[in-house]
Design brief:
With about 575 residues, the protein is an all-alpha fold. It is globular and about 90 Å long.
Length: about 575
């Protein structure tokens, strides 16, 4: 799907490449503010981009690149209203500027000035691809012209690439104007089986209720969400079964329809294209209808992806407590806080959630993860116990909690219990490469079950051939088995994949020594020492041991440790 904005959504640094810097002068701060804005953009710090970009623009008021970058940063912050004056200035300088046009169009949509939106489309403002026609259709609906809107939806439905989206939008539009029979026919899949998300299913159920088909709606919910604990879905199904008429509330007008459209596009593009573009669509969806919680969650996820955890936490915090997505949002918020090293705040968020919703196993597991990531393993284990105690039956997705508890137990020195959890994780998900690698590597380090460890790690490599850690595990098990030539090949591949990892370089040095490549071994050990940072796990890598190997060689170190000698 072509998007004219895709290159412009890459960020301020891409937009400002064509800006010619004025020489730094003592009487203005343009150069400093400009450079600060560029630096902030590279770390997705939209707040700083706006601050320094505005300063630079004050010194160079006609710089279209600065204006465009400032607008994109304001969109990233969700400050579309504040972007409107800058967009007006930019469109006066460059009447074809699509970023400015998009902001002014979003402003007109928000104000429900549908004639202005239609005029902008006629003037060539483009959001991208089929979205222009969708916006035109909803604008016609906003002006009360249903006929032209349906014609546009039908044109889009003739194209296989846009058929699904067009039919869903048409069904929502028909339901909005009271044509529930027409909407139900589309939702039912009579002409085309639709891939409906949760919001679409709820809209369909509401339409069926308006047609006095509560039983059909309840049956659809039971089939689609058989074991749901989603409070909104449970309540809806109960009300339908009780015969209560359910109003159509999926959208209440054209503005909400467009908010839903921008959200659906953002959601479908997440993970598939540049996150800046996804963020633009999600922020517009929120701007048009702040109650579009799905768009808020997409926004938060994109902000996490670009490592702007502060804004991500703020977005998660906006999800109302009575919304069904509140627990999901609180889990996301806690994760963002932890990644900002605000660990105690993350723990408080999770403890508050658990106090309110003690039945949520993922919340207990997340609290365990928070302690585990801080290497507070003894504090983590009880929370994994609480999560597992809530499981009424085994499900494949539970493997990760058993795996996480196994890691905590192993780090506590409780190996038999840890091994049981690793085995349970593999019972639930037999081909899970993370578990296969961890358990296999643990056996290698303990000199236990080496043949089984080799099989586990080989399976993990087949699943993730480009994972340096797993390649290292395979090389290490070959080393422990005395298959040194095989070990060298795998270790070299691991270091190619992760050249700066000190542990992998140390292991490669050991394998080189084992095959008699002594000079290369010392080179790798020296590299390993040079790559040690504050983040290096010194329980796994002992710098003093590496220095001793450099002094006397691996054979002497193994003899001093009472370890098994290398057999050549």
């Amino acid at each position: 799907m072509p998007h004219p904005l895709i290159l412009r959504a890459l960020g301020l640094s891409a937009l400002m490449l064509g800006v010619t810097l004025a020489p730094a002068r003592a009487d203005d701060g343009f150069a400093g503010a400009y450079l600060a804005a560029r630096s902030a953009d590279q770390s997705a710090d939209y707040t700083a981009v706006v601050e320094y970009g505005a300063r630079a623009l004050a010194a160079d008021s006609e710089n279209s690149g600065l204006m465009e970058g400032l607008i994109i940063a304001q969109i990233g912050l969700g400050q579309i209203e504040q972007a409107v004056p800058v967009a007006r200035r930019l469109i006066a300088e460059d009447d074809d500027n699509q970023v400015a046009g998009l902001v002014l169009m979003a402003d007109a949509m928000k104000r429900e000035d549908w004639n202005a939106v239609l005029a902008q489309l006629d003037e060539g403002v483009s959001v991208g691809g089929f979205l222009d026609q969708m916006i035109e259709a909803w604008s016609f609906i906003g002006t009360g012209q249903m006929g032209p809107a349906v014609a546009l939806f039908d044109d889009l439905a003739d194209d296989s690439g846009t058929r699904q989206a067009a039919l869903i939008q048409k069904a929502l539009a028909l339901a909005l104007v009271g044509d529930h029979e027409g909407a139900a026919r589309i939702f039912s899949g009579e002409d085309e089986v639709l891939q409906l998300n949760r919001a679409g299913i709820i809209a369909y159920a509401q339409v069926l209720s308006q047609l006095e088909r509560n039983a059909d709606a309840a049956a659809m919910l039971a089939t689609t969400f058989p074991d749901t604990v989603d409070a909104e879905l449970v309540t809806l199904r109960e009300e339908l079964e009780a015969g209560k008429p359910i109003a159509f509330t999926a959208i209440s007008g054209a503005r909400e329809g467009l908010s839903r459209l921008f959200y659906e596009v953002a959601d479908s593009l997440a993970g598939e294209t540049d996150p800046g573009l996804v963020l633009i669509y999600a922020r517009i969806a929120e701007f048009l209808d702040p109650a579009t919680v799905g768009a808020t969650l997409v926004t938060a996820a994109v902000l996490e992806e670009v490592e702007n955890y502060a804004l991500a936490a703020e977005s998660y915090a906006r999800v109302p407590q009575d919304h069904q997505a509140f627990p999901q949002a609180q889990l996301g918020r806690a994760q963002a806080l932890r990644r900002m090293d605000r660990v105690e705040e993350a723990i408080e968020v999770l403890e508050t959630l658990i106090a309110a919703r003690p039945e949520l196993a993922p919340a207990h597991a997340a609290l365990g993860d928070t302690y585990r990531f801080e290497q507070r393993f003894a504090e983590a284990t009880p929370h994994y116990d609480d999560a597992i105690a809530l499981y009424d039956r085994d499900r494949a997705a539970q493997w990760s909690v058993y795996f996480a508890r196994g890691i905590a137990l192993e780090r506590e020195g409780r190996w038999p219990e840890a091994e049981r959890d690793f085995r349970k994780a593999l019972e639930l998900s037999p081909d899970q490469p993370s578990v296969l690698n961890y358990l296999g590597y643990s056996y290698v380090e303990k000199r236990e079950n080496l043949d089984e460890a080799l099989d586990m790690i080989q399976r993990a490599v087949e699943a993730r051939p480009f994972d340096g850690y797993i390649r290292d595990s395979l090389g290490w098990v070959y080393y422990r088995l005395g298959r040194y030539e095989d070990a060298v090949g795998e270790m070299e591949r691991a270091v190619e994949l992760m050249p700066l990892d000190p542990v992998l370089n140390d292991h490669l040095g050991d394998t080189y020594w084992a095959v008699g490549r002594l000079r290369e071994a010392r080179f790798q050990w020296s590299r390993a020492l040079s790559f040690i940072t504050d983040e290096t796990n010194l329980e796994e890598l002992d710098p003093d041991r590496i220095r001793r190997k450099l002094d006397v060689g691996l054979d002497v170190v193994l003899e001093e440790e009472g370890g098994e000698p290398i057999t050549r």
